[in-house]
């Protein structure tokens, strides 16, 4: 019998953030694995080391609560160094939202804070020609829907990254590194309607700030995005096994 896959979720969340544990549950539910398979590393507590990756098959990076990949600070320097280590390790990695932005910046891309490009809720994501040909994205069809919540935007992709998808408002919505098993999405494949609304309850200020609506008004526009969830599953089923240590 094959051993269960071991996941490492890199988090940038305060200790009192109610989404700290919810994020683990979300990834576990979408991936259909037990939560015990998802270990957590707190990037706010220190830098990731090579030894931290030895017992890991797949690295996950998600949102960040109140932390921005477009700013500056010692914590961000540590986080970006840690993501460079992940990139160098060639570990299969899937990063969403803050992880998408931070990985881009870590590897030489550019991230800016721009409320005019902010997106919240369900948005249509159109695949590029590279996305259509990609084994993870292609089966979704030319357009899929994704749950989003961001004010920061990746305006320049790093070298070695291939653009997979865009929205009308934001060009860089998903990319992969052509020589690494690393996929990154601005939207949240790990969330469904209920978990997304749970995030908004914890951060209600973003609803009024971005959408100009109350949470009660906004919640009716939110629904599940199974096409996006399928991306994460296909990554684990098709891309990760090609790069896992078989020894």
Task: Describe the protein.
The chain is α/β, with parallel strands linked by helices and 247 residues long. The chain has a single domain, classed as Class I glutamine amidotransferase (GATase) domain (Rossmann fold, 3-Layer(aba) Sandwich), CATH 3.40.50.880. It is 32% helix and 23% strand. Helix 2 packs across helix 3 (98-106). The relative contact order is 0.16.
Integer tally of domains: 1
* Superfamily (CATH H level) name: Class I glutamine amidotransferase (GATase) domain
| Average residue-wise pLDDT | 94
Q: Helical residue percent? A: 25-40%
- Uncertain runs: none
Discrete helix count = 8
The CATH architecture name reads 3-Layer(aba) Sandwich
Radius of gyration: 17 Å
Number of strands: 11
Under the CATH scheme, which class?
Alpha Beta
SSE series: EHEEHEHEEHEEEEEHHHH
Portion in beta strands? 15-25%
General shape: globular
CATH topology: Rossmann fold
- Order of the strands making up the biggest sheet: 2-1-3-4-11-10-9-6-7
| Largest pleated sheet | 9 strands, mixed
Class by SSE composition: alpha/beta
Distance N to C terminus: 15 Å
In short:
This protein has 247 residues and is α/β, with parallel strands linked by helices.
Could you name the key traits of this structure?
Rossmann fold; two-stranded antiparallel ribbon; about 30% helix; 8 helices; about 250 residues; alpha/beta
């Amino acid at each position: 019998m094959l051993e269960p896959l071991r996941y490492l979720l890199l988090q940038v969340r305060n200790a009192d953030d109610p989404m700290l544990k919810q994020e683990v549950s979300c990834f576990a539910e979408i991936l259909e694995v037990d939560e015990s398979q998802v270990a957590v590393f707190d990037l706010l507590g220190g830098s990731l080391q090579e030894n931290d990756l030895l017992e890991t098959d797949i690295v996950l990076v998600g949102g960040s609560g109140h932390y921005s990949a477009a700013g500056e600070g010692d914590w961000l320097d540590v986080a970006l160094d840690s993501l460079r280590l992940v990139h160098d390790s060639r570990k299969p990695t899937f990063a969403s939202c803050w992880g998408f932005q931070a990985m881009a910046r870590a590897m030489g891309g550019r991230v800016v804070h721009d409320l005019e490009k902010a997106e919240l809720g369900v948005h249509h994501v159109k695949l590029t020609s590279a996305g259509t040909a990609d084994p993870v994205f292609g089966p979704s069809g030319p357009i899929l829907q994704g749950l989003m919540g961001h004010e920061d935007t990746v305006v320049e992709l790093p070298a070695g990254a291939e653009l997979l998808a865009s929205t009308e408002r934001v060009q860089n919505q998903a990319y992969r590194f052509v020589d690494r098993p690393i996929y990154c999405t601005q939207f949240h494949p790990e969330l469904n309607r209920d978990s997304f609304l749970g995030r908004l309850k914890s951060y209600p200020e973003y609803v009024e700030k971005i959408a100009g609506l109350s949470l009660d008004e906004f919640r009716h526009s939110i629904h599940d995005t199974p096409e996006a969830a399928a991306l994460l599953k296909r990554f684990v089923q098709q891309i990760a096994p090609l790069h896992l240590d078989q020894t």
